[in-house]
Structures are given as C-alpha cells and as structure tokens.
Amino acid sequence: MENFIYSDKFYSDMDEFLEDEGITEDNCKDFPPDRSFECFDCELEKVVVLNAEWIEERIDSERYPEESDRMEEKLRKALAEIDFTKANELMPSLWYPTRKKFSITMADIIQHFS
User: Fold this and answer.
1) Whether this model's pTM surpasses 0.90
2) Strand 9-11 relative to strand 36-46: parallel, antiparallel, unpaired?
3) Residue 19 belongs to what domain range?
C-alpha cells in the first residue's frame, strides 16, 4: 500500500506507517487479530490549476480605477499572453486524500512481513 492517510498523517508506504504505529515483525502477532486501521486513499494532484478565470476571480475589483472597463480589457489582454498549459505543467503536485476509505487489517500487516 502506498500514498495514504491514517489519522490525519500522510504515509508514502506501509513501512513508514508500521514504524509510526510501533508494529514490527516481532510484535505484530501480539495485536488483536480483529484490529484494523481505517485509511484514506490519496491521489496526486496539482496544487493549483491556473487559468484566466481563476486569476480574474481573485483580483479585487475595488482596486480598479474608475475606468474599470478599460482595466478589465487590459487584464484580459495580458492574461491571453500567458501559456497556462506550460504553467500548469510546471506546477508542483502533492498527494491529496480522496473520499475512498480502506482498512489495513492485521492480516494485511502479517502478510506484509511475510
């Protein structure tokens, strides 16, 4: 299992999770067999996907001068020059939780050590 969240913490793999939980190959059989850990799957997503509309929505229109129509025209012209495809390709990605839940059972853990 890779890239999941348990108890509001991100884990890139099972070994990292087991270390945090203090579960080792030697002591894993000491835990109750019905013990399980509810986790959330994660997906790799861009931190933001930029486009002209996204930028326009974040500009405070109160900052525009009285000739706001002309300012909006200049803004749209400037935004049309941006290569959003390239900018979004370069945007970093992070692992974000999905709503997809799964459980890690003691059987999964014992199998992991096998």
Assistant:
1) no
2) unpaired
3) 1-47+95-114
